[in-house]
């Protein structure tokens, strides 16, 4: 552990030395951040309260004021104290924790119109209201961060009959925000609130304390080899004081116009694609409606044609019936006329035959 501490001190000194070299080169450039302003030094007051001395350093990865990513290193070491006797309570802890962070600042947005009753899906709600830096009544004075970290260290504690000592390593995420606290010329103290949550892999041995002999002893077969803790652990609660030469209120607040333009172009392209998609969807719906209307119109025309054909057939059938009835009447009339004619002819023949007979009789009388 002492070797790790020496390496940390050497790394910090190297960074400070390099900052002194680069300071003059970047001082005159208007669109860059000075090396010294890219450093911050912090200590977690909450861990001091629980008797864990700690210190950390953070460094902005880019000299551009538009970049908001940092890398940091935190060391914690509660060293074992030496006594003339072995204390029954033990609490020793050491940890090395490198961390990568991304900062952002919230921006204000207009509240949703109460008259807007458009339903939003769950994922759209997450995107528009949760995972975004645009908030209603946003606290723009805060600089929020999210980070990923790796940690490794050792521990030994004993508060009861049995104590544990071992090693651990792990991975996790950090969340929090910073606010300005105090400033004097070019020296600033900020406060940082946050927490870390992660998964740990550990191994440990169990030990006890013999007050009579004033020594520690190890319990056999009660320790465990390397294993993963089956649930996430709250590995840090942070209430830290941060020293900077540039306050948090003046950092991570600028937006690169080129990136903003590219982002706006992407948003416009996305919106245009969405509008095109909606237009295609509307065109498809309109085509479906037209197709349905055409089908309906075709059905109506077919029904009308069927009705017309049916009416025509009924008309033709009626006409055929009328024609047959007329033919029957005509035939009947002709037959009647024929009968009458034949009757008249017979009557005329009878009359003629009578007349001839009568004339014959008259002629015979005259001849007599």
- The level 1 CATH classification of the largest domain is Mainly Beta
Query: What does the radius of gyration come to?
Result: 54 Å
Tally of domains: 2
Structural class: alpha+beta
Any overview of this molecule?
By secondary structure, this protein is α+β, with helices and mostly antiparallel strands. It folds into 2 domains: 2-105 and 141-254, Porin, CATH 2.40.160; 256-368. 41% of the residues lie in helices and 34% in strands. The protein has 4 helices and 12 strands. It has helices at residues 2-27, 45-49, 122-130, 257-367; strands spanning 39-44, 54-60, 69-78, 90-104, 107-108, 134-135, 143-158, 163-184, 187-210, 215-218, 224-228, 233-244. Strands 1-2-3-4-7-8-9-12 form an 8-stranded antiparallel beta barrel. Strand 9 and strand 10 (215-218) form a beta hairpin. It is rod-shaped, with a radius of gyration of 54 Å. The N and C termini lie far apart (188 Å).
Provide a short characterization of the protein structure:
The protein has 368 residues and is of the alpha+beta class. It is built from 4 helices and 12 strands.
Key attributes of the depicted protein:
41% helix, rod-shaped, 2 domains, disordered N terminus, 34% strand, 4 helices, two-stranded parallel sheet, Porin, alpha+beta, 368 residues
